[in-house]
């Protein structure tokens, strides 16, 4: 359609006449929610600071069609904020985090929103044997190795690349973990792609390859509070874990080797339970974990994307589903948070004010031949996908 420019002055005078002005105003008012609903997906970049050894760090803002927003930095691949709508379509930031890079770099860092690797969770005594060779890893959790060691993937600067996929805006992060880093064999090339899909999902695709046999177990460590970060504890959140068995541990959170049936235990989340309902029961496993801090064995076939969990927050109606190809999920109820350092909006993060659902292989798998293997052979490709899907319901 061609615009007749001669008509423009007439149009302007019409619009500025009182009645038409009212009409145009009303029309725009009706359209405004629709404008949000069909907003263009986008990704933008801004500086986020500098690390001590030089590389400058960026923060990327991903926005999907429905106005949902994720802010992700290439330092540690950290999800700094993530908004999700409640039952009245009101958005709130549902992950714990800090506002500055300095806060993220300042220990102790509870892994808020970070990519965890090379090995998420614990390896007993920081040792394992592969192809007859014993490897000694950094020991950083009592006598054990946790979350990749002293400088895991949560503390390195990743190379970022912005992409737009049909599914939504995406950020691709790559990192080369050198042979011997934190004691692991092989140069490991890792790629993590975060996509904020137009179905209100944060989708994480991990791939990795190595030039020497090694072990790999990557995960993501967001602490969720579906009432909004800093809005109290998560004890009233209702959780379903699609898992008939869990991985009992010793006092140091190292698996005993057994995969235990959840029936009749406070670990049975096959139907929905409030987190606080049984967390303080007189149960040895709960005592060892200081609450829930265990791996559940997700029902169904590992390697196939299936639902692992769902979480519902009754006051806002927010729901988060977790889907994954991994065999297990670590459900951690923020038992070690102590409120000592305020979060990004100045509110404290006391004990149990966030929950983690870290999809992964079972802890200490390199020393447990009966667990699904975490060995990555030279020439093979590690692949893993996890989706955090957000929605809301009335009750
Ligand atoms: C994991 C572990 C917990 C704890 C947190 C970080 O989820 O299982 O024991 O170390 O990370 O504080």
Walk me through what this model shows:
The protein is mainly beta and 395 residues long. The strands form seven sheets. It has a nine-stranded antiparallel sheet with strand order 11-12-13-14-27-23-22-17-20, with no helix packed on it. Strands 1-2-3-4-5 form a five-stranded antiparallel sheet, with no helix packed on it. Strands 19-18-21-24-25 form a five-stranded antiparallel sheet, with no helix packed on it. Helix content is 10%, strand content 35%. The protein has four helices and 27 strands. The site of alpha-D-galactopyranose has 11 residues, from β24 and β25.
Keyphrases for this structure?
395 residues; binds alpha-D-galactopyranose; 4 helices; nine-stranded antiparallel β-sheet
| Ligand names | alpha-D-galactopyranose
Helix content: 10-25%
- The average pLDDT value, as a whole number, equals 92
Percent of residues in β-strands: 35-45%
Q: What is the general shape? A: globular
| Low-pLDDT residue intervals, each spanning 5 or more residues | 1-9, 11-17
By helix and strand content, what is the structural category? mainly beta
Query: How far from one another are the termini?
Result: 48 Å
- Computed over alpha carbons, the radius of gyration is 23 Å
Record the strand order, biggest sheet. 11-12-13-14-27-23-22-17-20
- Number of H- or I-type helical stretches: 4
């Amino acid at each position: 359609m061609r615009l007749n420019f001669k008509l423009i002055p007439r149009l302007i005078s019409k619009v500025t006449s009182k009645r038409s002005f009212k009409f145009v105003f009303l029309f725009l008012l009706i359209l405004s929610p629709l404008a949000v609903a069909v907003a263009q997906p986008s990704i933008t970049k801004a500086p986020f600071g500098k690390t001590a050894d030089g590389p400058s760090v960026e923060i990327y803002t991903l926005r999907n069609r429905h106005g949902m927003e994720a802010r992700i930095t290439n330092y540690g691949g950290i999800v700094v904020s993530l908004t999700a709508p409640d039952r009245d379509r009101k958005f709130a930031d549902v992950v714990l985090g800090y506002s500055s890079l300095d806060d993220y770099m300042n220990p102790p860092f509870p892994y808020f929103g970070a990519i965890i690797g090379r090995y998420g969770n614990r390896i007993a005594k920081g040792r394992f044997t592969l192809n007859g060779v014993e490897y000694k890893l950094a020991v950083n959790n009592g006598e054990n190795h946790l979350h990749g060691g002293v400088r895991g993937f949560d503390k390195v600067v990743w190379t970022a690349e912005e992409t737009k996929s049909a599914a939504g805006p995406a950020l691709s992060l790559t990192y080369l973990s050198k042979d011997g880093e934190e004691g692991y064999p092989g140069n490991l090339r890792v790629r993590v792609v975060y996509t904020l899909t137009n179905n209100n999902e944060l989708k994480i695709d991990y791939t990795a390859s190595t030039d020497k046999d090694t072990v790999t177990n990557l995960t993501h460590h967001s602490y969720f509070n579906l009432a909004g970060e800093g809005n109290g504890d998560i004890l009233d959140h209702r959780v379903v874990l699609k898992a008939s068995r869990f991985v009992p541990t010793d006092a140091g959170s190292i698996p005993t080797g057994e995969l235990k049936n959840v029936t009749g235990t406070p670990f049975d989340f096959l139907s929905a339970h409030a987190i606080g309902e049984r967390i303080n029961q007189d149960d040895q496993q709960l005592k060892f974990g200081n609450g829930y801090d265990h791996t559940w064995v997700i029902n169904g076939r590992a390697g196939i994307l299936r639902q692992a969990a769902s979480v519902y927050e009754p006051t806002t109606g927010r729901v988060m589903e977790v889907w994954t190809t991994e065999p297990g999920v670590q459900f951690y109820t923020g038992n070690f948070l102590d409120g000592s350092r305020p979060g990004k909006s100045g509110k404290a993060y006391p004990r149990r004010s966030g929950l983690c659902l870290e999809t992964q292989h079972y802890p200490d798998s390199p020393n447990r031949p009966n667990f699904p293997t975490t060995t990555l052979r030279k020439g093979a490709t590690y692949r893993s996908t996890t989706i955090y899907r957000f929605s809301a319901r009335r009750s």
